[in-house]
Amino acid sequence: MDEATGRRRIPFYKMHGGGNDFILIDHCHHFLPEAEQPKFARQVCAAKVGVGADGLILLETSPQADIAWRFYNADGSEAEMCGNGARCAARFAVLNGLAGPRLTLSTLAGIIQAEVHDRQVRVAMTGVGDFRLHVDIPLNDRTLQGHFLKVGVPHVVVLSADLEKVPLKQWGKQIRFHPLFQPRGTNANFLLLKGPHSLEVRTYERGVEDETLACGTGAVAAALIAARLGHVTSPVMVHTRGGEVLAVSFQDQGSTITDVTLEGEALVVYQGELWMDELK
């Protein structure tokens, strides 16, 4: 509360990983009631009338980890995991003295480990599994072959020979809400192979309901599916729509894939204050 004006103001950071952008708030004192958080996420993530972002991250205390989060997509839905969001959350925690450079973060997908080296952040991914390869996905005018897996959240990966010719919003939306992946739906990724350690990916993100400039879990999903299909080996450099290259490393044990990490820059754009009484 600003004592001079009586206005409620909340400090925040605007951060991004590869153009996947987030609003981050220190919520260790729990001043936002849980029932109001989805609406708050929609308000602050809205372009033009809010800050504008792909998601909202509230950092809180945790009895099991150094820090915990509540992660909300721009539509107010709560997500189990977000790779780029986790990288931004880890750096935010270090910058604000909430944790040291080697930290643990409690998410709905489990507790993940992170290492922060200035702007560079590496996170160990959790909840990887449930591979389903060669799934036929009937769309309105064609059938695509996709490959499903979970990286904390569900992903479908479709190989493409030309990413620029993919009608991403059209196909991505149909895959995201397809009956095959209900009730939670899925993220939709389209990947182009570039070499034995390199690929490019475009992602339609669940909860954002549009293409994002980068998706951390999508980058991991694309790399792991490409590895399962025999096209790449670790480490894999994943080129995102935002221009950043994310490094995905893993141990391929044949029947299982372990020790999955995602690494890249987590950047601060600016700090500011939200005027709570004037949010629409």
The averaged pLDDT comes out at 94
In DSSP terms (H or I, runs of 4 or more residues), the helix count works out at 4
Biggest sheet details? 17 strands, mixed
Shape: globular
Q: CATH class of the largest domain, please?
A: Alpha Beta
Ranges where pLDDT stays below 50 over 5 or more residues in a row are none
Summarize the structure.
By secondary structure, the chain is of the alpha+beta class. The protein contains 4 helices and 17 strands. Helices cover 16% and strands 44% of the residues.
Description:
The model has no long low-confidence stretch (mean pLDDT about 95). This protein has two domains: about 10-125 and about 265-280, Diaminopimelate Epimerase, Chain A, domain 1 (Roll), CATH 3.10.310; about 130-265, Diaminopimelate Epimerase, Chain A, domain 1. It is globular and about 55 Å long. The longest helix has 13 residues, at about 85-95. Helix content is about 15%, strand content about 45%. The protein is of the alpha+beta class and about 280 residues long. The chain has helices at about 35-45, 85-95, 170-175, 215-230, and strands spanning about 10-15, 20-25, 55-60, 65-75, 100-105, 110-115, 120-125, 130-140, 145-150, 155-160, 185-195, 200-205, 210, 235-240, 245-250, 255-265, 265-275. A hairpin with a 4-residue loop joins strand 15 and strand 16 (about 255-265). It has a 17-stranded mixed β-sheet that branches. It contains four helices and 17 strands.
